[in-house]
Specification:
372 residues; alpha+beta; eight-stranded mixed beta sheet; 23 strands
Amino acid sequence: MRNATVPVAVLGGGIAGAAACITLAAAGLRPLWIAPLGRGGDKPGEHLAPAAWPLLSKLGSSDLVARSYHRPAGITFSSWGSDHLAERHSMVHLEGPATVLNRMRFEADLADRALNLDVERISAPVAQVSRQDDVWHLQVGDTRLRTFFLLDATGRTAFVARSRASRFRADRLAALVGFLEQDPQAEVVPTRATLVEATASGWWYVTLLADDRLALNHYTDPDLIPFGSSKAQALLDRLSQETRYVGRWIDEAGFRFVTPIKATSAGTTWVAPAAGIGWAAIGDAAAAFDPLSSHGMTTALWTAIAGAEASVAALSGDLRPLAAYATKVATGVQEFLSSQREIYRREQRFLNEPFWKRRHSQHASNTLQDDT
């Protein structure tokens, strides 16, 4: 076993972990990044909102979204609250268009940016963690680690934060995620656009990626997924029959599934407070929002930067930024919940359906003991 002492340790990979490490390195610290290697493969959540541009600039990483495997999000079509298809173009936004990301490539590029700043990364999982005499003690692989501050970027599991704060959930939204490729014999040139469509069982998000694959997400509640089918392909085929536009786009353009369908949690969860003595939650560990907001990745970047900056101040004895950070996260959560309720209530066509009935009457007040 080797022993190590570092001022700050960042637990968890992804966007928040990488952004926190970049921020800490820029402040003159050399954080230890404890981030087990992911399973790889594509990830949902492709839209990066324009609100992220100042954050990427602060990280010195604005160039990452200009790479060829991303594309500007010029046009969005939506059928929400109406059978008609509404069109929204990015030219109406003064800050410019959002970006449709290849999420896997973006995360890898941001991680490379952090590692190029001489950030040390350990890919082993954390076996033990405890806090004694104002110091965190961790066992990570063959390393016994002491650190004075922990940044929890472990996603919805909130590995450290869940034992230090109360955990809340607004809903149990789930996502079925798949990627499709077009039949080479198809004669239709697919539109480089994004489509959002509300249906009786939930809502759909479909977007054409820069590599011409179609990313398809269906959001619903776990108990509303018909488990009678053992094949995910057949399941999504049946669900797509309820759509007016999504199924038509897939069929007429000749798209076919090329990867297994995955199910993942997509509900709104958060911890409160999001920071305490010697620790702060960032990214989804702090607050994970319903993807309807399109601000999940922006939130991950902001919490990573603000949480890392607060940790630097805390190490120097100033705890005020840490308290301010926790307050801002709490305020942001409440603002999101209010906005979320308003958006869901705009959909009045399916009021008798369980998915929509829940969202027209829900109140986020349940403390979580377990996120499974």
